[in-house]
Amino acid sequence: MKFSNKLSFVILATGLIVLTISSFTLYNFSHNSIVKSQLMVTKSIADEVSGDIDLLLFEKVKTALTLANTPIIKKALETSNLSYSDLSAEKRKESIKRLNEKWIATKDPADNFILKFTDNKVSDFLKNQQRILKGEYGEIFLTNKFGALVASTAKLSTLAHGHKYWWLGSYNNGEGAIFFDDRGYDDSVGGYVLGLVVPIRKGMEIIGVLKCNLNILGSISELMFDEKNQLLGKLKLVRSGGMVVFEKGFEPLSTQVHGSIFEKLKNKKSGSFIINDSGEKVIVGCSEIELTKGGEGYGFGGTFESIDHKKGNTGESWYVVYSRQMSAALMPFTQSIKTIILIGIAIILILVLVSYLFGRKIAKPLAVLNKATEKIGKGDFEYRIDERRKDEFGALARSFNSMAGKLQETTTSIVELEHEITERKQAEEELRESEEKYRSLFTSTNDGACVHELIYKNDKPLDYRISDVNPRYESIIGVKRDDVIGVLGSELYGSGEAPYLNIYADVVKTGRSKSFETYFAPMGKYFLISVFSTGAHKFATVFQDITDSKRAKKDKRRLEDKLHRAQKMESLGLMAGGIAHDLNNILSGLVSYPELLLLDIPVDSPMRKPMETIKKSGMRAVDVVSDLITIARGVATVKEVLNLNTIVTEYLGSAEHQKLERTHSFIDFKAELNPDLLNLNGSSTHINKTLMNLVVNASEAIEGTGTVTISTTNRYLDEPLKGYEDVRIGEYAVLSVSDDGSGISSEDLEKIFEPFYTKKVMGRSGTGLGLAVVWNSVQDHNGYIDVKSSEEGTVFELYFRLTRDQIAEDTEDVPAAEYQGHGEKILVVDDEENQREIACGMLTKLGYIAEAVSSGEEAIEYVKKNPVDLIVLDMVMPKGINGRKTYEEIIKIRPGQKAIIASGHAKTKEVDLAQELGAGKYIRVYASYYVINCT
Asked: In this structure, is residue 933 part of a structural domain?
């Protein structure tokens, strides 16, 4: 076999063997690692979705508990329980049974017996929740502590519920528990329903049970099929019994999970594993949803089949199952192996071809060697042959040339010497041109550039010295070139260790370039720094200014956060406003009826003190309503010129603050007031409430001894505040409340101004409205809030725009005797019966003749037949025409008729229109009574 053929065969065989062994080893080693990685990824996705569903269910629980503990529901339960309490257990059971039989027998939902439960105040309240959270609820219904129906949003199959598993599960032998009724497919709504059952307590006693049927799968599907979860796999929500609760493209509970998965679920095992499905391997991750386990205080389950639903839960928890085809998961890896093999084969073939061509060429030196021997034999000692080969021919050539050299010894070829000189000059010229190009680029680039040399000690990088900088570096860093050449990195940056030393040392060691971002505080700029190795122990850095792009991203994120927060505060404010209006009407009786009764109860009567206690309790509830109305915005409409020093001084002398000092005797309350503080336009009532809330919160933040400081000052604001992308430049009066408590975490700091959000510790009460009131009051004053918090304490700074106007002089209060009537006739128009009774009772006590009607239409008919001296007119009446339209029709009948507007709502455009027609002052009623001067 020819030498060239033999060489090609050896290279081909060796290459194929090495490629086969390398590919096989790489596949086995990497395959196991990738499978383990995919198992972890699959489990983490299942855990993440499971956690999201758990959080969703917990949010539903909080909403249901908030709904269940509203005053209107508790009052209805107390009334219902009282009606059954006088009966013996046997008679009560018989009474509920009779009502239940009548309920079942009555098929017409419009029957008066049915409407008694489906068309009352409580059922209207529950229906309103359905409208607020449209599409989220099916039926919502309320039962008393004996299981009898109190109110429902629709006709149910039964009236008695005390024997049902979900009612017993929530009542929990009087202990109470949150119970999830996994109803399965519910014929009453034509879909999948999860019943959420919560106990309602008064003190430690359970007084009733509220059940909300949730259309849950819509919310769950949004979580499960978010784009980030569609990673080459399938997500399912399943019961531990194997039935699929939800899978995209399938009807709920119509399919079962694979048998291998079922075995894992049956044994209560979460995690990831591999199964065989129809001959193909599948990676599966399972994660159990915490709230469906039925832990302490929670229950989860149902019956397999009941009157109106099928395939109910038999006590099984829920799992999120995420599955991926093994082949799909490994596809990138297998494609890489195939590519490596193809490239390897191509390289081997190229090497074989090259070796064949060179093999033929290598045989030629034998002839050359023969010729050289002849030359030396003839005395030509300068003759040399090529000795670069690595085989026997190369060794023979080297021996031959060595022999010729020794013969020639000191003889040097002039031609070779001249050739060497020429090559050296050419290399030096190329080096000079390269350095000129480098220097031109180094000097003219728009980015800062710097050359360094690493300093080592015992082979460990210790520091680096600056060798050169370009002009742009001088302008960026602000130092001259001559002042930094030869300076150590640690000296230049004034630090114990040179910055980024590990990064620079790694670049020099590996020769691989690196880039990273950093913030240079003295200039307030961000830089992208690129690092390159330039030789032994040397490296270069290039500084690129990226400040604008970084700030643009931060500005965009801040605007998005502010929009999200504003939308959330608006929706919560609307809800708070609605609740406040309903509570306002309810509380009016609680405050005003005791006031009427106290006018007739003698001072020494034993009934007087209980009645005053009832009135006092009602007024405390009025404070909460006031907070809710503040959250709903638009309440600080009456503003005056005032001074923060006056408000702080009055608050520190108030009974509320003196009580706070008694209960927090371990806290030192300090005031640091600027005597030259300027005035502002605002509502003293709301700023006083704001100050009180901040001081109370600061006191609650201190464990043990501490100090709460209230201060005021004038400040010129010309820079942004956290949370505001634009702040009006100008003068502000600043109210500051600081404490030396434990501070607020960054996570809580984002939520502290949300209504109903509270982190009160055990033993301390709170409505979660305090800081929401602060936020909305400051917003109504077009001001700003700056909060700074750390482990050393928290500072709230409130900024209010100044005014140069002076505070008006105090006006004398009108004596109470001037409100006394002398038989003038007043007509009260209000759709709320309680409000009518209260107003008429109070007016009668004051010496007026009072009549009342419930609508605008009735008022018009009354005035046609009966002249009156004054009309007290409610502006918002849900049924029929409103107050403005009523007054417009009345003055057509009786031009110049006197009227005033009284309402629990904020002043609106309709009120302004009524006043333009001739109506008098607008009275805002806060669960209180009317005081009217008819003169």
From this structure: no
Q: Is 124 within the bounds of a domain? A: yes
Give the model's pLDDT for residue 926.
Answer: 47
Query: Across the chain, what does the average pLDDT equal?
Result: 80
Residues 772 and 683 in one domain: yes
> pLDDT tens digit string along 693-732?
999 989 988 988 999 999 999 998 877 677 676 677 788 9
CB of 289 within 8 A of CB of 50?
yes
Q: Are residues 903 and 882 in the same domain?
A: yes
> What pLDDT digit, counting tens, does each position of 264-294 carry?
888 887 888 999 888 889 999 999 998 888 7
* Parent domain of 383: 367-411
849-853 and 870-873 beta bridge pairing: unpaired
| Cα atoms in the 13 Å half-sphere on the side-chain side of 47 | 10
Alpha-carbon span 221 to 930, nearest angstrom: 53
- Radius of gyration over alpha carbons of the chain, in Å? 44
**Average pLDDT, stretch 541-562?**
68
End-to-end alpha-carbon separation of the chain, Å?
A: 134
pTM greater than 0.85 (yes/no): no
pLDDT of residue 811: 55
Which residue from 901, 928, 840 is spatially nearest to 629, judged by alpha carbons? 928
Task: Give CA–CA dist 735/684, Å, rounded.
Answer: 13
Angle at 439 between CA 438 and CA 441, to 5 degrees: 65
Last residue of a domain, one of 775, 803, 831: 803
Distance of CA 44 to the CA centre of its chain: 21
In a shared domain, residues 785 and 836: no
- Asked if the model's pLDDT at residue 933 lies above 80, the reply is no
Q: Which parts of 786-928 fold into alpha helices (H)?
A: 833-845, 856-865, 883-893, 909-917
Reduced to 3 states, what is the DSSP secondary structure of residue 273? Answer: strand
851 with 791, same domain: the answer is no
- pLDDT tens digits along 335-391: 777 888 888 888 888 888 887 777 666 656 656 666 777 777 767 767 777 767 776
Residue 246's CB: how many other CB atoms inside 10 A?
Answer: 21
| Cα–Cα dist 36/743, whole Å | 43
Partners of 717 in the β-ladder: 730
Q: Are residues 919 and 797 in the same domain?
A: no
Residue 354 lies in a domain: no
Q: How far apart, in whole angstroms, are the C-alpha atoms of residue 690 and residue 772?
A: 10
What band does 587 get if pLDDT is binned at 50, 70 and 90?
low
235 vs 752, residue with greater confidence: 235
- Rounded CA-CA distance 907/162 in Å is 47
176 and 70 in a common domain: yes
What was the pLDDT predicted at 927? 42
Same domain, 763 and 868: no
Q: Could you give the percent of the chain with pLDDT greater than 90?
A: 28
Task: State which of 261, 295, 327 marks the end of a domain.
Answer: 327
- Give the integer Cα–Cα distance in Å for 533 and 531: 7
CATH number of the domain encompassing residue 711: 3.30.565.10
Domain count, the chain: 5
| Lowest-confidence pick of 97-106, 228-237, 583-592 | 583-592
What are the b/e assignments for 145-171, b being 16+ CB within 10 Å? bbbbbbbbbbbbeebbbbebebbbbbb
Query: Which pair of structure tokens corresponds to residue 531?
Result: 């690092």
CB 288 within 8 A of CB 318: yes
Q: What whole-number distance in Å separates Cα of residue 283 and Cα of residue 40? A: 10
d(CA 433, CA 670): 76
Q: How, if at all, do strands 205-214 and 448-457 pair?
A: unpaired
H/E stretch holding 80 reads helix 71-85
Q: What is the mean pLDDT of residues 846-855?
A: 92
Q: Both 834 and 774 in a single domain?
A: no
Pairing label, strands 870-873, 825-829: parallel
Q: Does the residue 715 lie in any domain?
A: yes
